[in-house]
């Protein structure tokens, strides 16, 4: 794990974490995995892509995921998002369905969510790397502690952020967020196993924009460009 070239706002907020023993241990773990010939996703320059695209002083919304997609070519550092040309994963298909039901926005034919991230939607996984074909392989190696620090930094330094917490894992991870200071939207996870138990009909996108506008902020343009190469 090369020294991260983080946006300056994140360096100031969480940069000291890279000097902590747990992060040094994580770095050694990742190096050892690569030396054994294991394929790690996303690629190294994309480990911190969510932070690179969404500086802390721009964060208006936080969506939490668990760990990266473990298929080749999928993960690129944003939760729920896949690279252009990759089949849209089932959970994201359901997110698009709810977006259409909530705001009338028809699904695009790709799963590349950088347009959201560039507007202040922090698409943060709890664990930032995974081994190919082994879901959850890097859980418990230190990433969770680092991403906890990120969430704390947002919750403590920003005002009126919307935390969208899909599923029990995300809700537990951000359980400390002050709901008198921020909006916390909870529902079951959008995966096909649970989406019909409360994700569909939860209207997270319209609720987010109503809250942002009520506090004098620009709403999120949830309409993704048809061409994923467009910002």
From TrEMBL:
<keyword id="KW-0963">Cytoplasm</keyword>
<dbReference type="GO" id="GO:0004844">
    <property type="term" value="F:uracil DNA N-glycosylase activity"/>
</dbReference>
<protein>
    <recommendedName>
        <fullName>Uracil-DNA glycosylase</fullName>
        <ecNumber>3.2.2.27</ecNumber>
    </recommendedName>
</protein>
<keyword id="KW-0378">Hydrolase</keyword>
<dbReference type="GO" id="GO:0097510">
    <property type="term" value="P:base-excision repair, AP site formation via deaminated base removal"/>
</dbReference>
<keyword id="KW-0227">DNA damage</keyword>
<comment type="similarity">
    <text>Belongs to the uracil-DNA glycosylase (UDG) superfamily. UNG family.</text>
</comment>
<feature type="active site" description="Proton acceptor">
    <location>
        <position position="67"/>
    </location>
</feature>
<dbReference type="InterPro" id="IPR005122">
    <property type="entry name" value="Uracil-DNA_glycosylase-like"/>
</dbReference>
<comment type="function">
    <text>Excises uracil residues from the DNA which can arise as a result of misincorporation of dUMP residues by DNA polymerase or due to deamination of cytosine.</text>
</comment>
<dbReference type="InterPro" id="IPR002043">
    <property type="entry name" value="UDG_fam1"/>
</dbReference>
<keyword id="KW-0326">Glycosidase</keyword>
<keyword id="KW-0234">DNA repair</keyword>
<dbReference type="GO" id="GO:0005737">
    <property type="term" value="C:cytoplasm"/>
</dbReference>
<dbReference type="InterPro" id="IPR036895">
    <property type="entry name" value="Uracil-DNA_glycosylase-like_sf"/>
</dbReference>
<dbReference type="Pfam" id="PF03167">
    <property type="entry name" value="UDG"/>
</dbReference>
<feature type="domain" description="Uracil-DNA glycosylase-like">
    <location>
        <begin position="52"/>
        <end position="212"/>
    </location>
</feature>
<dbReference type="InterPro" id="IPR018085">
    <property type="entry name" value="Ura-DNA_Glyclase_AS"/>
</dbReference>
């Amino acid at each position: 794990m090369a020294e991260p070239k983080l946006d300056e706002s994140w360096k100031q907020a969480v940069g000291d974490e890279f000097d902590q023993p747990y992060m040094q241990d994580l770095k050694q773990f990742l190096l050892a995995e690569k030396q054994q010939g294991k394929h790690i996703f996303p690629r190294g320059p994309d480990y911190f892509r969510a932070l690179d695209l969404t500086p802390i002083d721009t964060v208006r919304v936080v969506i939490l995921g668990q760990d990266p997609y473990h298929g080749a070519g999928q993960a690129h550092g944003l939760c729920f998002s896949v690279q252009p040309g990759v089949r849209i994963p089932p959970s994201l298909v359901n997110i698009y369905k709810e977006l259409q039901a909530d705001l009338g926005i028809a699904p695009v034919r790709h799963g590349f969510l950088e347009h959201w991230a560039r507007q202040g939607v922090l698409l943060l996984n709890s664990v930032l790397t995974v081994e190919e074909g082994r879901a959850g392989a890097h859980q418990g190696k230190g990433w969770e502690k680092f991403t906890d620090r990120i969430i704390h930094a947002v919750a403590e330094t920003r005002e009126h952020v919307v935390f969208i917490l899909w599923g029990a894992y995300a809700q537990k991870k951000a359980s400390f967020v002050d709901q008198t200071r921020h909006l916390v939207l909870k529902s079951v996870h959008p995966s096909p196993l649970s989406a019909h138990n409360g994700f569909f009909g939860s209207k997270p996108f319209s609720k987010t924009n109503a809250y942002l506008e009520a506090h004098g902020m620009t709403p999120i343009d949830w309409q993704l460009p048809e061409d994923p190469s467009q910002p």
